[in-house]
Amino acid sequence: MHFAAQTHVDNSFGNSFEFIKNNVYGTCVLLEACKVFGQIKRFVHVSTDEVYGETDENATVGNHEASQLLPTNPYSASKAGAEMLVMAYGRSYGLPVIITRGNNVYGPHQFPEKLVPKFILLAMKRKPLPIQGDGSNVRSYLYCEDVAEAFEIVLHRGEVGHVYNVGTDVEKRVLDVATDICRLFSLDPSESIQFVENRPFNDQRYFLDTQKMKKLGWSERTKWEDGLRKTMEWYVRNVDWWGDISAALLPHPRMLSCHVVEKDHHPSAELDSEQNRNGYGE
């Protein structure tokens, strides 16, 4: 078994080489190592819903696994390129590859440059919650434990050579996320939310068809309200977990986002490097 998750090195789309080096070259190194080793039972490649490109705002049916890949920026294009390598190694060398394309993940232990923990920590400090753009961008959020269960099902029940969308039909605007977190802390959203400059290539919406995963026996179990509350409660109990995170709490953080957690193990500590991304990683 081998899980391959890509890393997000720089939140700026200007440094396209870093995306290519980490997402494409890094994946190639793992594939080549597995080919040489020759005893890998499963190579599960964790990709992203972004490879499909921006979903039409009025679409009622999400992208399915056979939909055309139309990434809109260098970051998501490098993810699509990595996927092509994975499939090519499967066809050429017989590696037992499986690809997952997932929505955004949130939960305890997530590094605070990501949207949900960033807003929770800022709300705890009674500081403004910075929303890039007008907050209308729509994303879907999965609780980390649900995603870990999805990976386990794909590992044991997934078919080699196939792609599986791991997602939810529940969508939230970034503004909705900020508002929900304000309410958890009894803050007035009109006073606590601050609109800041948007980032480049901020796609409006990603929407997935997840029927294939449901046929494997998986669907999300944690409602947004429950997962958000559990996440908030963890950060309240572990306010000093990350040490100095002031740089991560800026409206436009530019820093490394792949971290190793040594204190204990939690699914979102592993998932943070890939499933949560995009600036402050909606």
Automatic annotation (TrEMBL):
GO terms for biological process: nucleotide-sugar metabolic process. Residues 1-231 form the NAD(P)-binding domain. This is NAD(P)-binding domain-containing protein.
